[in-house]
Amino acid sequence: MAIITLTTDLGDRDIYQAALKGSILKLLPNVTLIDITHSVSTFNVPQAAFILKNSYHYFPEETVHLIGVDTVYHEDVRYLAIRYQNHYFVGADNGIFSLIFDRIPDEIVEINILQDLKFLHFPIADIFVKAACHLAEKGKLTDIGIPIIRLEKKMTLRPVIDKSVIKGSVIYIDSFQNVITNITKDLFDEVQNGRQFVLYFKRNESINKLSWHYNEVPEGEKLCLFGISDHLEIAINKGNASGLLGLNVGDIVRIEFL
Question: Are 111 and 79 in contact (CB under 8 A)?
Answer without folding.
Answer: yes
